[in-house]
Amino acid sequence: MSRLLLKVGALALQIILLPPLFAQVQETDIKTASKTREEAVKRSDLMKPHFASGNRAMQDAQAIRQQLQTASTDQRPALLTKMKADYQMAITEYEQALEETKVRDESGLHVIGLIGVIRNGLVSQQKAVEMLVQDKDVPVILSNLGIAYGGLGEHQEAITMLQQAAILKPAAGTYMELGTDFAQVGKMPEAAASCEKILTVDPAAKNTQEGCYKNIAIVLTNNGKLAEAIAPLQKATQLNPQDALAWKLLGDALTNTITSKPEGGKMVYVIPAGTVEAYQRYLQLEPNGPYAEQVQAALEGFAKLTKGVSSPTETKEKN
Question: Are residues 134 and 258 in the same domain?
Fold first, then answer.
């Protein structure tokens, strides 16, 4: 699962974690080692309903995120409220699933809830991997938990969960989400490094890596840093030349860096190399797309700008 970050109110949502949840984690992190293997298996079975409930909540939240792309202004508040509730439900269920997942500590004397390992650093990360109950769902739970936190704007918490998921099972989608969340907290080198790791775990995941760089660029754009968005967008369009939106965003970012200078009595505008080509590429891919009119108007404006604009002094002399 992944999320395309657009400048919508959903990004500003803040998660509210109930104090009792933290208290329960502290109280149940460490158990005595007298639990039998049969009891451990039962705990694994108990994890599945929470995992399934978390998945359902995540699916509902992702569906609403898609609806928000085309929702009217009147529809958005109710959808955002429901999406927030779904993400919170997913977090609650996934954390309960993790609490039921047990590993032994380094001394072998205690059994620790995996959520306690993550939150309290009771054992090293590498040791946690070695001690982890072999359940293929755990990395998925951690990754989905990170996505849920990210969906609510709790990006640092999302990073913690996603990093744990990547340690247990490196996956292209996990690194894409990590890149997005690192960008959200302003850690651009770490964001780019996460994107670069995608092909190391899946050489065929070029589109996922492209999406990672595009998400970084969208975060930068949303924060008014269009010039900084140029490099990741150039990387994105190189990875996937068929992504029309990436070309449009690249054109927007380059347009933001247009400069002007007086020359021969006229104000001459300097359009950065690649600006016109980026917009033209968008129109080639989506001639009737949602931004086609906007892009066409921009290209027509560039044609006028390249002819130069008479300066006030020149206009006065002609009169």
Answer: no
Residue 257 falls inside a structural domain:
yes
Closest by alpha carbon to 191, among 170, 217, 167?
Answer: 217
pLDDT in tens, the chain (319 residues): 444 444 333 332 222 222 212 222 222 222 322 333 344 444 444 447 888 898 899 889 989 988 888 889 899 999 999 999 999 999 999 888 877 765 544 444 444 455 555 555 544 555 555 545 445 677 888 889 999 999 999 999 999 899 888 888 889 999 999 999 999 999 999 999 999 999 999 999 999 999 999 999 999 999 999 999 999 999 999 999 999 999 999 999 999 999 888 877 778 888 999 999 999 999 999 999 999 999 999 999 988 887 655 444 443 444 4
Assess if residue 39 is contained within a domain. yes
Residue 282 CA to residue 233 CA, distance in Å, equals: 13
34 and 151 inside one domain:
yes
Question: Count of domains in the chain?
Answer: 2
Q: Phi/psi of residue 259, each to 5°?
A: -120, 170
In a domain, 286, yes or no: yes
Task: Give the predicted TM-score (pTM) of the model.
Answer: 0.74
Which of 154, 169, 184 delimits the end of a domain? 169
User: Rounded distance, CA 47 to CA 102, Å?
Assistant: 11
Residue 313, φ and ψ in degrees, nearest 5: -65, -45
